[in-house]
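Weekly structure sync, notes
Attendees: PL, DS, HV (note-taker this week)

Item 1: Cellulose biosynthesis protein BcsE
DS walked through the input record. Source organism listed as Hylemonella gracilis ATCC 19624. Sequence as pasted into the shared doc:
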Amino acid sequence: METGKVYAIVGEDDAPSAALLWQTLLDASEKGAAATLISAPGMAEHLAQSGLQTKAHEALRRKSLAVFETVPPARSATPPTPAANLAHAHGLVQDLTYLERKTGRRAQLLVINGMDTLFPALDEATLRFWRTCAEQEDRAVVLLFREHARALSALRPMVHVVAGLAELKSRYGATTLGIFHWFHREGLLASRSVAVRQGSRGALEVCEPPRGTQASNALTTPPPAADEAQFIAMGSVFAPQEKAPSGWRITDDDLALVQALGEDAVAATFVLAFTPETDFDPLARCIYGLRKRGGPRVKILVREVGTRLRYNQETLAVRLGANLVVPAELSTARFLSLSTMVQGQVFPHSLPSSYEQALKTSMPEQERGYQPPAEFTRTVRAALAQSQVLGVQVALVRLPLAYGLQPLDALRYCTIKRAGDLCGADAASVYLFLYACRENDVDATLKRLFTLPVGELFTGDDRLLSPRAIEDALRDYDSRGASGRFPELTGELARLASAPGLAASSPSTVSSAPQESAAQPTPAASRARNTSASLSAAYVAPPPAVPAPLTLREPRAAVALATSSSDNAEGLAASDLSPMLSTHS
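Item 1 (cont.): predicted structure, written out as tokens:
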């Protein structure tokens, strides 16, 4: 890097990004150039991920490295304005200037870690401010972003402001460093991509090709294989009214036979079917076996026929070796076009050492449904880490309760059947963690999970989609849970599940009950009334049994109050830098 310039690095909240951050700081400090890190909350965990704690402590003792953690601006319903971003950036620089004058130590490298947390709505004026800061102070400024997809889309229109833009991406166990452009003392790097891995000492290392091979050999196109144009498809891939191409070999719906045909395959194309009668586990084993034996040039397609793979199943199929999953909505003509387009492709991912290992690292834990406060954050963190290995999208949704409702009143109408989907609660909100759920599918998932309309149970929703935002919310949940008492609803929900009369039901189900039940209560109905009375004692208003859809409250006063509170909080938010490891700063 070159002093007087600003650089942007887009990473993820994982070990390779942490290693890149801390190795950059340590390299600068070891070369005699003082380095300073200003980080969003979670810096201690970030350092632990890198495995470079010992070297970092040595640099702190030498005073060649200074580390600070700052509190981000208070969250509000509306994104911060460019003026608010500039005010926050000015505050950080003023605090840093004061500390440098006080200690007599000036950093030639400044790294801002967690830009997307400190500046949630990035704008060009903020980027230009940091570029001006780098030029005036004659130091290199590195802006590190943790939320990969959102940050990259925001930076692309402003790429002309920074002297370098790079991304660090991990997928399916392989990590790639991609350089869009990067100005340095010796010239310019552009459009470069290299495979990297985290070495035994924690630092990132470039994966070199094996000795005795040249880089040009790796790019040489292999000679055509004898089975390059061969298509082998299961019979159920085509519906009865569809006609298979004349050159295709159609086999019985026997996955063992398909695997046997793939014993000597080099570049053939195998087309498997996923139908309503298909068991996913044998299909996944077949995909893994074909890829393991055939190597990267074999093409494997999975066509959905009359049903759909779940999102996590689809991602696992690609992890195990599938080149493409063809959606059920596509016509036969489009399916045949896609099967032609994959010709010549080489499978780019590294395979797990065994099918069992892939299943263990890729599929969600068996926990599902309500988790008590002590277990909720632990279980969510485990599922979040698992989703990052596979690159599966997840969502944490916070649902503030409607006026007068308790968590139990809402959770009795929530039914979770899928492994990996979790829920928890504090005194005022219900939290839903949705594993393998795309952002566009959150609305449909909420409607499916609750038997009453979501708008009748909650005043709104706060959707957290990035690993960093979810981790920040979990940390806040833990801190509030330690200082206050959250409701523990395991016993009450188990009692509701075991008593049919207390099971969550929609208003239409209640109104369709037989008339004789009202005149002559059954034993189950009597137990329901007794249990309902005991629950009403614990949760005074309203009673847990909701006989009709809840009326929506008027939200204007609440919204005005929330807006006023968030504005005051934003005005009081300080940009004080809190020194970490104060004994060494």
